[in-house]
TrEMBL record:
Pfam families xrefs: Pkinase, Stress-antifung
Membrane-crossing segments per the record: 176-200
Family matches, as SUPFAM superfamilies: Protein kinase-like (PK-like) (SSF56112)
Entry keyword set: ATP-binding, Kinase, Membrane, Nucleotide-binding, Receptor, Repeat, Serine/threonine-protein kinase, Signal, Transferase, Transmembrane, Transmembrane helix
Domain Gnk2-homologous stretches: 1-75, 81-195
Membrane topology, from the record: Single-pass membrane protein
Protein name (Swiss-Prot/TrEMBL): Uncharacterized protein
CDD domains with a match to the protein in the record: Gnk2-like
């Protein structure tokens, strides 16, 4: 869904293809959020869904603000009772349980009836009811607008989550918040979103605000950013924008709509010191202003996100100047034979005879002569002699796939049949059969890690060098099992069954004369090669 896609009251549907390859998709946002927030939610949810379920015929994704669903069967104007999703509230209900359940049923029935009376573009209702003198129950119901009133009020759309016998005493007033999300096939979407997360968030924010007096709270309110704005600034926390990762937080580079560059520290909620660290940084930097202190521009505490927004500092850290190599080197011969292992099996890269040095601000160059081992060289280097920081990324991707498969790219075979490693890896990954690539000697106990390595390897060998990740991003992908990986595009793979002439770039890069040698070409996406 692009930025100019029309969203009618947060509802969007789409159909593509013809049977048997027809797909129907729909997205529905909470009616009480903005169009921009809706678009951000659907965009990020769709990316996550494609990454988590890359080969599924049907898939469903849910977040605080929206749901998305696609399927290969008829979706619109059809009521089903699957999928069904309910999230239990683990807080304590101090009210009488039967009375609570009765209040819940009465509230949801009332809201369901109100929502069903909506028009063809919006079926939405909110409300609340008293459970006891100091406990209130809040609800939100929203139905997919493509359903008629009868479907919207059917039993399939009226499920609620029942609470178990929980209880505790409390001297404070509470808002009991239940989340019940029956999401049916056409998304008869009853978002009973008197959210648990809202309850938890308000509770946490209440404790948090207690650390500030009124004047300080007024100052902090001016520093609050929306999650949507930060997701846009960082391109939804894209791996390419990652600056670094610590024990409990990841830092991303971003750009606000006004053009200002920022650094966003995304603190993990599950971290032991996550919330404590978040509060401590705001408390400290909000009260201190000094030329030698990094400036805190704001923060965000919503949608299960804890974000700190700082000014972007161009020259990185002192650590980078003291300990990082200031010289960039493109190896051009990265392969298994050039990775040596010491007594502790620590890898050491050898053979820098073909290495090319880059300046600190240089990202690519044209080689005077194409040299190296076939299979490890990226297509732009073979066809144009173009060397870049992504050249070794391609070679690394090939090396990863070789390690996983236990076979060389030059002699890869399945049974008695000769195959192309990259073509075979891509085909099986697309079909959800990536394990076919794996060396039988590798233990299935590490299947998740192995499949992740295949995913990363395919990201590295994508045909377009701009689509390949940087090596720093690859390092972070390998060190974090929670980082969401992008969906790889078709790789640059070649098969040894046809040949064409490849011209080596001339010494002065201007001559039309060159030596040629046969080169195998891609069986799935043919790359035409011409003399330079």
């Amino acid at each position: 869904m692009s930025s100019n896609t029309q969203i009618t009251y947060g509802y969007y549907n789409f159909t593509a293809g013809q049977q048997p390859n027809k797909v129907e998709a729909m997205a529905l946002c909470r009616a009480d959020i903005s169009v921009d927030d809706c678009r951000d939610c659907v965009s990020s949810s769709a990316s996550s869904l494609l990454s988590v379920c890359p080969n599924s015929m049907k898939a469903f994704g849910y977040s605080d603000n929206c749901v998305i669903y696609y399927t290969n069967i008829s979706l619109f104007h059809v009521l089903t009772d699957r999928p069904f999703w309910a999230l239990r509230f683990d807080g304590r209900i101090t009210a009488d349980i039967p009375k609570f359940n009765s209040s819940l049923t009465t509230l949801m029935t009332s809201l369901q009836n109100k929502a069903s009376l909506g028009n063809s573009v919006l079926k939405f209702a909110t409300g609340n009811t008293k459970v006891t003198a100091n406990q209130s129950l809040y609800g939100l119901v929203q139905c997919s607008p493509d359903l008629n009133r009868l479907d919207s009020t059917s039993p399939a759309s009226s499920r609620t989550a029942t609470s178990s016998a929980l209880g505790a005493s409390s001297s404070k007033s509470h808002k009991i918040i239940a989340i019940v999300v029956p999401i049916v096939g056409s998304l008869v979407l009853i978002l009973i979103i008197a959210f648990i997360c809202i309850f938890a968030r308000r509770k946490k924010q209440g404790k948090f605000s207690g650390n500030f007096d009124k004047e300080e709270m007024d100052t902090l309110q001016a520093l609050q950013f929306s999650t949507g704005a930060i997701k846009v600034a960082t391109e939804n926390f894209a791996v390419e924008n990652m600056l670094g990762k610590g024990g409990s937080a990841t830092v991303y580079k971003g750009k606000l709509t006004g053009g200002q560059e920022i650094a966003v520290k995304r603190i993990e909620r599950h971290a032991v010191l996550g919330e404590e660290q978040f509060k401590n940084e705001i408390l400290t930097l909000a009260k201190l202003h000094h030329g030698n202190l990094v400036r805190l521009l704001g923060f965000c505490l919503e949608e299960d996100e804890m974000l700190l927004i700082y000014e972007f500092v161009v020259n990185k850290s002192l650590d980078a100047f003291l300990f990082d190599s200031q010289q960039r080197i493109i190896h051009r011969a990265l392969k298994a034979a050039n990775v040596l292992l010491d007594a502790e099996f620590i890898p050491k890269i050898a053979d820098f005879g073909l290495a090319k040095s880059f300046k600190a601000d240089q990202s690519q160059a044209v080689a005077s002569k194409v040299v190296g081992t076939h299979g490890y060289m990226p297509p732009e280097y073979l066809t144009q002699g173009q060397v870049s920081l992504k050249s070794d990324v391609f070679s690394f991707g090939v090396l990863v796939l070789e390690i996983v498969s236990g076979q060389k790219i030059s002699s890869f075979q399945i049974g008695e049949r000769q195959e192309n490693l990259l073509a075979y890896a891509w085909k099986n990954w697309q079909e959800g059969k990536a394990w076919n690539l794996v060396d039988p000697a590798l233990s299935p106990a590490f299947s998740a890690e192995i499949l992740r390595c295949i995913h990363i390897g395919l990201l590295c060998v994508q045909n377009n060098m701009a689509d390949r990740p940087t090596m720093s991003s690859v390092s972070l992908m390998l060190s974090s099992n929670t980082m969401t990986l992008e969906v790889p595009l078709q790789p640059a793979f070649f098969k040894q069954n046809r040949s064409m002439l490849l011209s080596e770039p001339s010494q002065d890069n201007t001559s039309d004369q060159s030596n040629s040698r046969p080169l195998s070409v891609n069986e799935a996406s043919v790359t035409e090669l011409y003399p330079r």
